[in-house]
Structure prediction request, 65 residues.
Amino acid sequence: MHNATTAGVVPVVAELLTSERLCLSRDQYGATPLHKAVLYYQPKLVKLIADKFRIATRAKDQVNE
Prediction:
């Protein structure tokens, strides 16, 4: 999920984005897929993730927890 998000592979992310738990999964730095989509400038993925799981927009990173 995180690698596909970073690379901007929309079909793969769309297929993997099946649960809130995956949407809120974190990498070793505490970043969620939405954080990575923003960081790596993937606007299609930002919209996809935010529209499908609104809770992702409220997830904090490890610095702001």
Notes: Residues 43-52 form the longest helix (10 residues).
